Model the fold of this input.
Amino acid sequence: MDIRQLRTFVAIYESGGISRAAEAERTAPSVLSHHLANLEAQFSKPLFVRNPRGLIPTEYGQRLYSHAVQILRALRLAKEDMNNMSGEISGTVAIGMAYTALEGIGKNLMRIVLQEYPKLSLMLSETLSGSTIEQMTDAHVDLALAYNATQDPRLHVTPLLEERMICIGKKEIIGDTTSPITVKKLLTLPFVLLRRGTSGRSIMNDPRLQKQFEQSARVQTDNVNAAILFVEEGYGCVIGSRSYLRKQLQSGAVAYRDIVKPKLLRTLYLCEHVDKPPSRAVDAVKQLVINLITEEVQQHRWDCERILYGARSLDTPPPFN
Done:
């Protein structure tokens, strides 16, 4: 197989048909049909099933697509990296970020890239921790900031910081007090859980406690806005870090209580591909991310127990006023 065949295959796969792919690629359908036929001839089974609505990928086609996307992306990144060696950093960097990370540094990251790297295109997405890892292994993102990242031999993960989780909600739900709340008491309150797993979010390091909360949650969701609405409307509380619902906490719309016996912690990781050398563009964005997180923590705008990257530690930040 050659690159033209793979590009043709991906175009047809994503378009769902040869005619639609030909329009997108601005070429004749006969050319794409020729490349696809030559590609399929190399395998014992077809890559697509033909039906009146178009082409449906077979199991063979689905498997080849995952490889083809990575191959074509690696070629594009290699070309961009070589072009960057002797000039201004350019190209595209895709980064997946957990909600708290996006809230914490997303705006400044975009501002700096726009101002200092005019030829660099940044693809920024807020994703669930589980799906962020999936996107990385499928080569859809170059870097990811994810909580409690799943150990995977295809990824290199670097712990950046550790956050302490708190109980957040209206006082009539969590109690009109600032005293800590025990996990045992918290489990009796109505709370929404940001789900864990391949389509969910990781809210704590301890898998045993995570299971207890899953069994006791009144509502489970993989949507942050749904969880925020749940809390703001006074339906219940949520378990989050101090940086979560920051605006609502600072305005007094909701209150918080520290969680004890035991305290709940979660770790933010920077995830990278093991077998794909980073380009200059990816390295530049990676360093920006680390610098921005460090600055946010040091200025007490991102509250955490300690910063882990570089073996540095911080004192526990002051509570909200």
User: Anything to note?
Assistant: The chain has twelve helices and 13 strands. The chain has three domains: 3-83, 87-159+269-302, 161-266. The two ends are 63 Å apart (CA to CA).
